[in-house]
Design goal:
Strand content of chain A: under 5%
Number of strands of chain B: 8
CATH architecture of chain B: 3-Layer(aba) Sandwich
Distance between the termini of chain A: 41 Å
Radius of gyration of chain B: 19 Å
Shape of chain A: rod-shaped
Distance between the termini of chain B: 20 Å
Structural class of chain A: mainly alpha
Radius of gyration of chain A: 29 Å
Shape of chain B: globular
Oligomer: heterodimer
Chain lengths: 122, 326
């Protein structure tokens, strides 16, 4: 299926939108997740007998959060690089196909083929 | 007259033969909400401002000269594209542009643009586009009629304000169809709601507030009907109901006409369900100057916000307005 320049531009735009949405979505959810978790930790940390172990759990929790959302962002970036590569190849294949098709059409046209022939004008 | 118009209405095609499809509609909606993000990231889904024909952009220099010298420019509203101007069933296929062309000799030009951008940015771009078009055809363009629906009317006002003397001196009539000159209540309500939600320190309210605040700058401009950069520069776009608008004079060389929808006939306070009556009628408010004397205000009972862009009874008034001095 042939795609024009506008369609490729839109495909790339859509692809970028998806990856940006994942990135921003991950940031957004992480921010609110962190905010939601903060209150119970603060409350528990204010109770002296359990403050120390709570701080440990709090630290572990924050680390896991960072790892989880960080992995989502990393995988998203890797996927973006991969699909950039795929779209680049597809687009150049599409361009080559267009050029080849144009040459075939030119050869099939006796008038235009003649015009390009070294015998033209004899 | 409506029967005659109805029979003519289906003969054209306001968006051209290959009008915008579902993808274009989705992109237009996306531009309304995320327009500034799409612009900042030079995303391919951004609707760059251009005149469109057959779902393709047409450069101002590639547009043929108007045979009669008369041109009408259609500027759509938020989240829409040029298909907004097509009559719905049973008169599908035509629109105000086709009728104005057939009956009054106006060559229609349909604009498509990123409605999520600042109104002042879109106004500058429109001014530049019309400048190019008029420079290309110079003496061939003798009269311009500008027709804007909703935010399109504000973009037109902004363009006239930013324009040089050349094209703007050819504008004879400006028609505003449900344009929120004093702001739109839905945007005001959203602004109040997000600020109220921000007062509660809970995750749920913060999530809703942050999601609502992602709406485009062009939507936020509708809070008070911002027209120029000074209205929004150096301020928080989400601050609570702070009207910073500087007074912008109306174009004095053109006649201004206002179509005001009344979604529920006889109930003026509701307006067209999106824009209030005073706002759509361009009335004065505070430091804001009202529409110049001699402007026409036509209240359209039973018509909602979208109906104003594609209803035969509105067209009748438009035709009357543009013909009144010619």
């Amino acid at each position: 299926m042939k795609m024009d320049e506008e369609a490729w531009k839109r495909l790339r735009g859509f692809k970028r939108l998806i990856h940006d949405s994942v990135e921003r979505g991950a940031n957004f959810v992480e921010k609110h997740h962190r905010h939601a978790a903060e209150k119970p930790f603060q409350t528990l940390e204010s109770i002296t007998p359990i403050a120390a172990p709570t701080r440990v759990v709090h630290g572990v929790h924050n680390g896991v959060l960072w790892l989880t959302y960080g992995s989502i962002r990393a995988i998203n970036r890797a996927a973006e690089m991969a699909d950039n590569w795929v779209v680049d190849r597809l687009e150049s294949a599409d361009d080559d196909d267009t050029v080849e098709k144009g040459i075939v059409e030119l050869d099939a046209d006796p008038v235009r083929a003649g015009a390009c022939s070294p015998l033209h004008g004899r | 007259m409506q029967a005659k118009l109805a029979s003519m209405a289906g003969q054209g095609d306001s968006a051209g033969k290959g009008g915008p499809g579902i993808v274009e509609h989705a992109i237009s909606a996306l531009n309304a909400w995320f327009g500034d993000y799409l612009s900042q990231t030079t995303n391919g889904l951004q609707q760059s401002m251009a005149f469109y024909r057959d779902n393709r952009p047409v450069a101002p220099e590639d547009i043929a000269a108007p045979p009669t010298g008369k041109v009408c420019v259609f500027v759509h509203g938020l989240g829409c594209n040029e298909s907004l101007w097509s009559f719905p069933a049973p008169h599908e296929g035509g629109g105000y542009g086709e009728l104005l062309e057939q009956r009054c000799g106006y060559m229609p030009l349909y604009l498509r643009f990123n409605t999520g951008l600042r109104i002042s940015n879109n106004g500058k771009q429109l001014a530049s586009l019309l400048e190019q078009f008029c420079a290309r055809h110079d003496a061939a363009v003798t009269e311009l009629v500008l027709i804007g629906h909703s935010v399109g009317g504000l973009v037109i006002r902004s363009a006239c304000h930013h324009a040089g003397q050349d094209w703007v001196s050819r504008v004879r009539h400006v028609v505003y169809l449900g344009s929120p000159h004093l702001g739109a209540p839905l945007e005001k309500a959203t602004n109040v709601a997000t600020n109220v939600l921000g007062r509660f320190d809970t995750t749920a309210t913060r999530v809703i507030r942050d999601l609502l605040n992602t709406r485009g700058a062009g939507v936020k401009d509708l809070r008070f009907g911002n027209l120029v950069d000074q209205d929004w520069l150096d301020c928080d776009p989400d601050e609570l109901m702070n009207n910073r608008r500087v007074p912008v004079p109306w174009l004095t060389t053109a006649r201004h006409h206002f179509a005001v929808g009344q979604a529920v006939a006889g109930v003026g306070t509701l307006g067209d369900a999106m824009v209030g009556t005073d706002s759509a009628a361009g009335r004065a408010c505070g430091a804001q100057p009202g529409a110049p004397g001699g402007s026409d205000v036509q209240v359209m009972p039973g018509l909602n916000h979208l109906d104003l862009a594609r209803h035969l009874s509105v067209y009748e008034h438009i035709e009357g307005w543009v013909n009144e001095d010619g």
